[in-house]
Amino acid sequence: MDNAMFLIRKRAYNFSDIFSRKYAVLDTGFGLLLQNISYNPKGKGQCSVPSIDYVKKMERYAMGNFPKNFGGKWKDCNHLLWPYLLSNKYWILFHVDLENWKVTVYDNNQRFYQEADIYPHVVPCINIIPEIIENYVARDRVDLGKKRFQPLQYFRKSPCDIPQLKRFR
């Protein structure tokens, strides 16, 4: 999956006249990093304390230095995209829309996982992305205003709402 994301980033970089620079296509490591800091699968409600290494990695993502090849600076982006592997067997796509302050999860088959299964994986995103924005991007993004202090709104797209899948239904 990371190879596919790399090729998408490379193509967008090489053909910048076709692809918008307002998107940052991240790798699978970003989703894992979010989950490692605040998601507790046993439901004990405790969050781990971020290490210095974690903070530096998040800064590298926000500054566009990670992923290493063709990463996008969040100060220049309105959209963040990354794939996420659920239970080591099922891929979903996260899309953070910074302009509208929301995260959308694209799920091509909602029969596999119910909302209660997916939402715990979304919680780190809706809470940590605003912190990253505040710490590393806010001074360059006055357009975000006070909403940057609030959690992101969450939406889950059904297969009927995914444009590529509509024609197969």
From TrEMBL:
Presence of keyword Hydrolase: yes
UniProt keyword list: Hydrolase, Protease
Organism per entry: Abeliophyllum distichum
Keyword Protease: yes
Domain Ubiquitin-like protease family profile positions: 14-156
Organism lineage: Eukaryota, Viridiplantae, Streptophyta, Embryophyta, Tracheophyta
Name listed for the protein in its UniProt record: Ulp1 protease family
Signal peptide positions on this chain: none
GO biological process: proteolysis
One of the record's GO molecular function terms: peptidase activity
